[in-house]
Structures are given as C-alpha cells and as structure tokens.
Amino acid sequence: MAAITAALIKQVREETGAGMMDVKKALTEAEGDVARAKEIIRAKGIAAAGKREGRKAQEGTIASKVVKTADGEVGYAVEINSETDFVAKTPKFVEFAESVLDAAIAADANNVDDVLAAKTADGDVKLDIEQAAALFGEHVKVGQFAKIAGPHVEIYAHRKSAEMPPSIVALIATDEAGEKVAHEAALQISAMSPRWLTREDVDPAVLESERRIATEKTSDELAAKGKPQAVIDKIAPKIVEGRLNAFYKETVLLDQDYVKDPSKTVGKLFDEAGAKAIAFARIEVGKGDEED
C-alpha cells in the first residue's frame, strides 16, 4: 500500500476537484492507488463538485432560530444557496441548512467566515458544503448570515408558496416592551426592505450622495422653469430637505409608513407601545453579494 502523503492528496484534488476529506477517503479505500481513487471519486459523484464552483447558486433557503441567553435573546439566520429551487425545496436540503445553522449557533458565529469554520461531525461547515454539492449535484454555498441580540428577538420567515422553504427572513431585536409589536415590525421589514433602523444609522457617504443628487435635480428643475438663481438659492434647500425626508421614509425602518396603517410610522407604532427597537436584519435568497 502506497503512503497517502499530502502531495498525493494534493495531486488527486487538483485532478478531480474533490474535497480534501473525500480524496483522503478515496485514497485510503484504494490503498494509495491514484487511478483507483479517481475512479472511486467519479463513481460517488464527488469529482463534479469542483466544476460546480463556477456555476451560479442563487436559489436556496434560509434557516433561522432564536436562542435564549442569560442576557436576553439572540437571533440567527443563515442562507444556504443551491442552483435550482427544485433542490432548495427538498427535505434533505432544508435539513442540511438547519444543520449549518446549528453549527453556527454552537460556534457563536458572527459572520460567514465563522460559519464556514464552525465544527461539525464530519469536520467543519466548509467541508460539509463540499460534500453537499456532491450529494445534491449542484453548486452549494453559504450565502448571507445575520445575528442580532436584545431582550427580545422576533423572527418572521416568509415563503413564496406552501411547498417552498423560507426565501425571506426578517429579524428584529427590541426591549421587553417591544415584544408586543415585534411581530408587526418583522412583517414590515420583510415587506418593505428598510436599510437602516434610524436616520442616525444611515451611511454618511450614501446620505451625502443623496443630498448632491437632490440638490442638482432641484436646481435643474427650477432653472428649467425660468427661476432666477437668487430664487433657486432661496427655495431649493427646502425642496432638497423634502426629498431627503422621502428618502428616509423609504429606507429607514422607523420612518417608514406602517403598512397596516399608513397614517402612522413604524416609529409611532413603537412609541404607542412604550417600546424601543434595537436592531434588525433582513435576508432574501439570492440578494446577497453576486458571485464572481
């Protein structure tokens, strides 16, 4: 039996595209025979996993859970992508997504890199993803990840249809009083896709860009109407502020009109409950960073 060295494993990995553990198992079964190991890998469908890496995985599901802690609650959500919704809706794929979430929670993950490094029964999530690609016959990857904490965390998982797994998950953390309205807020987040919780949270660079655009647009419109520059300088600032307020109402959760009662904002909904929103997150399948 030939020695199964790191160089031998590297050679078979490069020639097959299979994961390290799969290559090691195949070489062990083949007693170090490279040709036989490659046959074993092909027979098990593992070799194709590497080739699948170049294919887009924009379907999938989102697994989510709230965990109680000594300080309150922590909400986790992880997106697991596949190439087709046919695979995404299978019980095995949904079960796999749940197993990744459990590993992420056990590792107290804070980002996607932490999720991939989280330990599992077979090694880590990164290795499990490689093996899942062979099992499902598609490119599989970890997409977006969210984690928020507070005295109370609410999760709403939206399904496009009864037979499909969750495709949008909204999480919101509130104080204890916020539990009364947290579900409504989670529905709002799911439906209206806010980007920030408060005006103070808006990215300064984004706000400055919006202000420039609003200023230029307002000036051009007033000039087109024949207004002299002195008049433009006087009235433009108020129009610009109005446009920025419209931007806030679209992108800031607490400024948004409450979908079930547009006569009040989501901020007013919390005020009426004597509650406070602390943080939120929203994940939608296929809406994360584009793959290279």
TrEMBL record:
<comment type="function">
    <text>Associates with the EF-Tu.GDP complex and induces the exchange of GDP to GTP. It remains bound to the aminoacyl-tRNA.EF-Tu.GTP complex up to the GTP hydrolysis stage on the ribosome.</text>
</comment>
<dbReference type="InterPro" id="IPR014039">
    <property type="entry name" value="Transl_elong_EFTs/EF1B_dimer"/>
</dbReference>
<keyword id="KW-0648">Protein biosynthesis</keyword>
<comment type="similarity">
    <text>Belongs to the EF-Ts family.</text>
</comment>
<dbReference type="GO" id="GO:0003746">
    <property type="term" value="F:translation elongation factor activity"/>
</dbReference>
<keyword id="KW-0251">Elongation factor</keyword>
<dbReference type="Pfam" id="PF00889">
    <property type="entry name" value="EF_TS"/>
</dbReference>
<dbReference type="InterPro" id="IPR009060">
    <property type="entry name" value="UBA-like_sf"/>
</dbReference>
<protein>
    <recommendedName>
        <fullName>Elongation factor Ts</fullName>
    </recommendedName>
</protein>
<keyword id="KW-0963">Cytoplasm</keyword>
<dbReference type="InterPro" id="IPR018101">
    <property type="entry name" value="Transl_elong_Ts_CS"/>
</dbReference>
<dbReference type="InterPro" id="IPR036402">
    <property type="entry name" value="EF-Ts_dimer_sf"/>
</dbReference>
<dbReference type="InterPro" id="IPR001816">
    <property type="entry name" value="Transl_elong_EFTs/EF1B"/>
</dbReference>
<feature type="domain" description="Translation elongation factor EFTs/EF1B dimerisation">
    <location>
        <begin position="76"/>
        <end position="287"/>
    </location>
</feature>
<feature type="region of interest" description="Involved in Mg(2+) ion dislocation from EF-Tu">
    <location>
        <begin position="84"/>
        <end position="87"/>
    </location>
</feature>
<dbReference type="GO" id="GO:0005737">
    <property type="term" value="C:cytoplasm"/>
</dbReference>
